[in-house]
Design goal:
The complex is a heterodimer of chains A (456) and B (121). Chain A is globular and about 65 Å long. With 456 residues, chain A is an alpha/beta fold. Chain A folds into 3 domains: 6-144 and 282-348, FAD/NAD(P)-binding domain (3-Layer(bba) Sandwich); 147-279, FAD/NAD(P)-binding domain (3-Layer(bba) Sandwich); 355-451, no CATH class. Chain A contains 9 helices and 27 strands. In chain A, the strands form 7 sheets. In chain A, strands 1, 2, 5, 6, 7, 8 and 19 form a 7-stranded mixed β-sheet that branches. A 5-stranded parallel β-sheet of chain A has the order 10-17-11-12-13. Chain B folds into 2 domains: 2-47, no CATH class; 54-112, CPE0013-like fold (Roll), CATH 3.10.530. Chain B is an alpha+beta fold and 121 residues long. Chain B has helices spanning 36-47, 80-89, and strands spanning 2-7, 16-21, 27-31, 50-51, 54-60, 66-71, 75-76, 91-93, 101-105, 108-112. Chain B is built from 2 helices and 10 strands; from the N terminus they run βββαββββαβββ. Chain B starts with a strand and ends in a 9-residue tail after the last strand. Classes of the chains: A alpha/beta (456), B alpha+beta (121). Chains A and B meet through strand 4, helix 3, helix 4 and helix 6 of A and strand 5, strand 6 and helix 2 of B. The complex binds flavin-adenine dinucleotide and iron/sulfur cluster. Flavin-adenine dinucleotide binds at residues 32-38, 58-61, 66-68, 71, 73, 75-76, 110-111, 140-142, 165, 168, 189-190, 193, 284, 287, 319-321, 325-329, 331 of chain A.
Chain lengths: 456, 121
């Protein structure tokens, strides 16, 4: 599907024929990124009334599908389709629909900038330079791997150190095994998935080290990617030294104390030729920042309202570019919301939309962040609050609160309690604001989520 | 009678279940499963554990060099490495559509997970 479906050329041998220029054109909705977020936003913008030719997805890769192309494992689509699909199958369903509806897209095209007045510029080896005035923009650039923390490991820097995502690309897209004896640092889902994948391809995965006392990955992935193959998970352990001159020859792992500091005397040498770093993902936010959009320092993505609209009017964000998701299904649902809102904005044009004002969300005790960050008072019913907790808690109550101001003092009063057997930072939680709850927000100065360990 | 801790892998909730097994290896009780699928999973997991296998095969004549594939249904966990050997020996040619059966293993199809691009050159 390399190329685009907007050019009229019938001559596939010479795809450069008859290309209309993308320089100084107008589109109602421009979507940056062709992963599951971008695909879903485009489909929903179309359902929201934007003609297919007035939508343009701009993807820098050779093909649509985003990171799902390299996620060949199963685990996608249970919520949306009721069956477990692999990443490519999940993506294909949306790609087929995009093509059937003739929604516009270009591949091999990298967006360089988005301005606050929604001018999108991109560059492509085939199409040259593009500059598009967009009615609305959806940011769906996905995320990148965080590797910074891993650079603090002392020792040499031999070959054989990869991020888990890079290794996944090597194995699944390029068909090349990066090593034979592997230690994985970090127990996020990508690391767990790669432990199984490389084992099945014949490598020996010696262990997975996790500095925290719990894994950041899904419990099912620990069961089916590590336990199934007898791969040890060393919690509260980290790599404290890398040995080897040209190629990794081994690593030293140590136990860490409550303050995550290595405990002297617990060092253990493990021979290996490959170290995979699976130390977390962070939203791709360069374009977001440069557009002057307010960023949430915890998520690393944009600050958004209930419509997934950023602090710059007419620019929306969704998927991993907004907050790192564990499940593609939730990416799709979030992107539907962004796509529908972008369509509405493009049809309606600029202008304030909620006279009753915005209520900020408040991440209380035990909550790391909440998306969205603010909710229009009149549009709260049906909005879902997505949040992550800051540690593992068992048998807790998740409490939805309203900030009520009286004589200059704000109290957080209980709206609703939800009992949970277990919550972990690795699994995103959600609460839907019911109509009854929304009605209680008339005078609220904030809406909060907090954890209560005991009934009060 | 024996008690075993087991994580249900059927959905991302990942219930941590407690499974009671009698001396004949039959499941007599399941606790902490949020839904009925958990119990069913515990039953097969004790008697004949099943997994869906996913991998890639080499493909000729497509824009990509490797095609993602999977077993159409879960297969016996003990047969995963034999199935890998079959998959590793496979080589297919474009065009391929998602869902196409490329080979068969233990009576289960190995299917394509993607519709290939035709190479434009
Ligand atoms: C390794 C891994 C394993 C996962 N496993 C599971 C799982 O088992 N089950 C599950 O449900 N979810 C899983 N997920 C999560 C899910 O796949 C992701 O959350 C989802 O793919 C994110 O979709 P997205 O569209 O936001 O981002 P992406 O899929 O990353 O797509 C973003 C796209 O934007 C493009 N782009 C970026 N910048 C630009 C630019 N400047 N110009 C043009 N294009 C640009 C990129 O090339 C990319 O194609 C996994 C994720 C990863 C990384
Ligand atoms: S028991 Fe049900 S809810 Fe729990 S993990 Fe299994 S399928 Fe999911």
């Amino acid at each position: 599907m390399s190329g685009d479906n907007l050019t009229e050329s019938k001559n596939t041998d010479k795809p450069d024929n008859n290309i209309k220029s993308y320089n100084n054109i107008e589109k109602k909705v421009v979507i940056i990124g062709g992963g599951p977020a971008g695909l879903a936003a485009a489909l929903e913008a179309n359902r929201g009334g934007i003609p297919p030719g007035e939508i343009l997805i701009i993807e820098r890769d050779r093909e649509l599908g985003g990171i799902l192309n390299q996620c060949v494992h199963a685990g996608f689509g249970l919520h949306l389709f009721g069956e477990e699909l692999t990443g490519p199958e999940y993506a294909q369903r949306f790609i087929d629909e995009i093509k059937a509806k003739k929604i516009g897209y270009v591949t091999d095209s990298m967006v360089l900038s988005v301005s606050p007045d929604r001018t999108v510029t991109f560059i492509s080896p085939r199409l040259g330079f593009g500059r598009i005035a967009a009615g609305a923009v959806v940011l769906a650039m996905g995320c990148r791997e965080r590797t910074r923390g891993a650079l603090n490991i002392p020792g040499s820097r031999p070959a054989g150190i990869f991020s888990a995502g890079t290794a996944q690309h090597y194995v699944n897209i390029d068909g090349y095994m990066p090593g034979n004896r592997v230690v994985i640092l970090g127990s996020g889902d990508i690391g767990l998935i790669m432990a199984r994948r490389m084992t099945l391809e014949g490598a020996e995965v010696r262990c997975v080290c996790e500095i925290m006392p719990y894994s950041g990955g899904l419990a099912r992935n620990i069961a089916q990617c590590l336990d199934d193959f007898g791969i040890p998970l060393l919690l509260s352990h980290t790599v404290t030294e890398i040995r080897g001159r040209e190629r990794v020859e081994g690593v030293v792992v140590s136990r860490v104390d409550e303050n995550l500091r290595p405990v002297p005397g617990t060092e253990r040498y493990i021979e290996c030729d490959t170290l995979l770093l699976s130390v977390g993902l962070i939203p791709e936010n360069e374009l977001t920042r440069e557009a002057g959009i307010e960023i949430d320092r915890v998520t690393g993505g944009a600050v958004v309202n209930q419509d997934m609209e950023t602090s710059v009017e007419g620019i929306f964000a969704c998927g991993n570019a907004l907050q790192v998701h564990d499940l593609a299904d939730y990416v799709t649902l979030e992107a539907y919301r962004a796509g529908m809102s972008a369509a509405a904005y493009a049809l309606r044009g600029p202008g304030a939309q909620d006279p009753a004002g915005m209520i900020p969300t408040r991440a209380g005790e035990g909550i790391r962040y909440i998306v969205p960050h603010k909710i229009a008072r009149g549009a709260a019913a049906g909005v879902k609050l997505f949040f992550r907790v800051s540690g593992i808690y068992r048998d807790v109550t998740v409490r939805l609160t309203a900030g009520v101001s009286e004589k200059g003092v704000t109290n957080n009063v209980r709206l609703r309690d939800y009992k949970k057997r277990i919550v972990t930072p690795g699994e995103m939680e959600q609460i839907e604001i019911t109509e009854k709850t929304a009605a209680q927000l008339q005078n609220a100065v904030s809406i909060g989520v907090e954890l209560c360990k005991k009934e009060t | 009678m024996q008690k075993r801790n087991m994580t249900c892998i059927v959905c991302p909730v990942g219930c941590r279940m407690e499974v009671e097994v009698d001396d004949d290896g039959r499941v007599t009780g399941v606790k902490n499963n949020a839904c009925a699928r958990g119990k069913k999973y515990a039953d097969t997991e004790i008697t004949n554990p099943q997994r869906t296998l996913t991998s890639t095969v080499r493909i000729d004549g497509a824009a990509e060099s490797f095609l993602p594939v999977r077993t159409a249904e879960p297969i016996s966990k003990g047969r995963l490495s034999d199935a890998m050997a079959v998959i590793r020996a496979l080589r297919v040619s474009a065009p391929v559509s998602m869902g196409d059966a490329l080979a068969n293993f233990d009576g289960v199809d190995i299917i394509a997970c993607k519709t290939t691009d035709t190479r434009t050159q």
